Amino acid sequence: MSHKFTIADCEIVDLPIVHNESGNITVMENSGNLPFDIKRIYYLYDVPMGSERGGHGHYDLQQYVIAASGSFTFVLDDGKDKKEVFLNHPNKALHIKPGIWREMKDFSSGSVCLVLASMEYTEEDYMRDYVQFLEYRNE
After folding, report:
1. Active site members
2. Which site from 34, 114, 131, 139 is most exposed, i.e. has the minimal number of CB atoms within 10 Å?
3. pTM metric for this prediction
4. Which InterPro entries match (predicted)?
């Protein structure tokens, strides 16, 4: 069923902010304010200017992607339509659903891309060839 999601299903989610005069905090908890339990956390940083990342899709994985620092752009593709999503606030997450191709670009200096994932790493969940991705989407 994951190939039935479209780019319209991938939305920016406002994360809760606890304001304090000494700084803000945002909390996300399994069985709380997340649509999936976190099984893996990773982050990208020191991405050279002009570099692109991603270039793959997932069969089952869901992700919350957050610009913990700086900014970058996600290009989402469902095999029919594409959209670009600019991330630059640590209290906003991009919820990427399964079956969506993603590419990342336009990393600002010092950017940190934090990813909360619904599954542990498994190579079998990746679609790394765009033609394979399109075939999957058209099944």
Report:
1. 56
2. 139
3. 0.93
4. QdtA_cupin_dom, RmlC-like_jellyroll, RmlC_Cupin_sf
